[in-house]
Design a protein that fits this description.
Blueprint (H helix, E strand, L loop, with lengths): L3 E4 L5 H11 L7 H8 L4 E7 L5 E9 L5 E9 L8 H15 L4 E7 L3 H9 L3 E6 L9 E7 L10
Parallel strand pairs: 4-5
Antiparallel strand pairs: 1-2, 2-3, 3-4, 5-7, 6-7
The chain binds coenzyme A.
The site of coenzyme A (COA) has 19 residues, from strand 4, helix 3 and helix 4.
């Protein structure tokens, strides 16, 4: 399977709604919320699609005017496509886009019981920042995590 990453478009709305339904048990974005996010100037979506144009995953970044902090607001891979490296590729591409657009810090929230996502984020260099009590609709707590984004050439000893 060939997986391509590209920027999301308003016409991806239906496929992203279906992806959210398949990927998350609760706390999903509604079609209406996703429509606004896909059409919002301060949001950027990256999607992963297969060679037939089927959406396998997506991630959404929120930028704040006048701020170098970027929020990873939604991020998922279709259950049938997990474990093959798509999540990791998407995350790396989202970090790169955030950095290219002037982001210096990437923040996200994750359920404390989401072992796979927590492991992925930690190995990608995110650190735990704040415990979020009763953060999700079912009462589950969350972790706020953050990563300092460093340009590829920074920090290299020459
Ligand atoms: C989290 C998620 C996006 C990861 O996507 P993915 O395509 O399966 O991720 P990858 O295949 O790139 O694997 C990422 C890492 O997790 C590990 N992993 C993946 N599935 C795993 C599993 N079932 N058990 C243990 N480890 C697993 C991989 O080994 C990999 O490890 P690495 O970082 O050392 O390479 C996906 O599981 C998902 O959509 N989950 C539901 C939605 C969600 O939780 N989103 C995040 C909200 S904060």
């Amino acid at each position: 399977m060939t997986v391509t990453l590209r920027q999301g478009r308003p016409e991806d709305l239906g496929a992203i709604v279906r992806l959210e339904e398949a990927a998350f048990a609760g706390d999903r974005f509604s079609r209406r919320q996703l429509w606004h996010l896909l059409n919002r100037a301060h949001a950027l979506t990256l999607v992963a699609e297969d060679e037939h144009g089927a959406l396998l995953g997506y991630g959404l970044l929120l930028f704040r005017r006048g701020s170098s902090r970027v929020r990873l607001y939604s991020f998922c891979v279709h259950p049938t496509a997990r474990g093959g490296g798509i999540g990791r590729r998407l995350l790396e591409a989202l970090e790169a886009v955030a950095r290219e657009r002037g982001g210096e810090r990437l923040e996200l929230e994750v359920r404390v019981d989401n072992r796979v996502a927590l492991g992925l984020y930690r190995r990608a260099g995110f650190r735990l920042r704040r415990w979020l009590d009763d953060y999700y609709a079912d009462g589950c707590a969350g972790w706020q995590m953050e990563k300092t984004l460093v340009a590829p050439c920074e920090g290299r000893v020459v």
